[in-house]
Write a structure and sequence with these properties.
Elements (H helix, E strand, L loop, with lengths): L2 E2 L4 E2 L4 E2 L4 E2 L4 E2 L4 E2 L4 E2 L4 E2 L3 E3 L4 E2 L4 E2 L16 E4 L4 E2 L4 E2 L8 E4 L4 E2 L4 E2 L4 E2 L4 E2 L4 E2 L4 E2 L4 E2 L4 E2 L4 E2 L4 E2 L4 E2 L7 E4 L5 E5 L1 H6 L4 H15 L5 H9 L6 H13 L15
Parallel strand pairs: 1-4, 2-5, 3-6, 4-7, 5-8, 6-9, 7-10, 8-11, 9-12, 10-13, 11-14, 12-15, 13-16, 14-17, 15-18, 16-19, 17-20, 18-21, 19-22, 20-23, 21-24, 22-25, 23-26, 25-27
Antiparallel strand pairs: 27-28
Helix pairs in contact: 2-3, 3-4
Length: about 270
């Protein structure tokens, strides 16, 4: 049975599964759909075109689905929506914005852990098993791939892609794409520091797969010359596994944009 605190405000057009728990002073607006097993602690605000899956937990003072922070928007401007998968932990004061245009979506996958005061901008895609430490700030239109781990106060420019199972160090400022499996730190520009060994283990890669990534990293980043040239040369080798191929694809794709942000090549607004 749904448990709703008497002080909560639930719009009549919101859809809540039978066992959702809604704590004190929460607000759930029209158009919101919340799946089974999800818990809203005190003072959680969820409004707009928001669809939330199963077994998520929202801690106090989260604001989910409010209008994007864009100057030209007015209260009458039509905007997009937000989908959130299953098993996510959304800690205190996290903000997640919907897509900025009608029909566009911000997409949050499953089993992610967003710590205190994380911000996810409009039209972002977060895949699964991502960890974002306190005060991580992600600009609009970014893509965060599975297993990426952000330390505190890291931030990303709009349209950046952060590859799977990489590690972003604290205070990093990301203004270009990050290939999978790497460790990166610093800002403007950030620098690749090595391979994220812990990420490889979390990804379940065997010893041979891990060694392939370490060898590829050495060829790409530990010799003189152009990174792009190294990537193109390595891509011509026979027998590359899928993980190394993913690293090369990320490097080559990001090179197609002058600032190293592949997603900007699809920008229409």
């Amino acid at each position: 049975m749904t448990q709703i605190h008497p002080s909560a405000v639930i719009d009549k057009d919101a859809q809540l599964a039978d066992d959702v728990i809604v704590g004190p002073n929460c607000v759930v607006g029209a158009g919101v759909s919340i799946g089974t097993g999800t818990i809203l602690n005190a003072n959680v605000v969820i409004i707009g075109n928001v669809t939330i899956g199963r077994n998520n937990q929202f801690f106090p003072n989260c604001v989910i689905g409010c209008r994007p922070q864009v100057l030209r928007l007015t209260s009458e401007t039509e905007i997009g929506g937000l989908t959130i998968g299953d098993g996510n932990v959304i800690r205190e004061q996290v903000t997640i914005h919907p897509g900025i245009h009608p029909g566009s979506l911000t997409k949050i996958g499953s089993d992610n852990f967003l710590m205190v005061s994380v911000h996810i901008g409009h039209d972002c895609t977060l895949e699964d098993q991502i960890v974002m430490s306190n005060l991580v700030q992600i600009g609009g239109h970014c893509k965060i791939e599975t297993g990426a781990w952000f330390s505190g106060l890291a931030a990303s420019h709009q349209f950046v892609t952060i590859g799977k199972w990489c590690y972003v160090a604290g205070l990093a400022g990301l203004n270009r794409d990050v290939p999978p499996f790497l460790t990166i730190s610093g800002h403007y520009p950030p620098k690749v520091r090595g391979v994220n060994k812990r990420g490889l283990i979390r990804a379940g890669l065997n010893e041979q797969q891990q060694q392939n990534i370490f060898k590829a990293h050495k060829k790409l980043y530990r010799q003189s010359g152009s990174l792009l040239d190294h990537a193109k040369a390595l891509a011509k080798e026979d027998g590359l596994d899928d993980n190394v191929r993913a690293m090369l694809d990320a490097i080559i794709s990001s090179s197609r944009h002058q600032f190293g942000r592949h997603l900007e090549t699809f920008r229409t607004h």
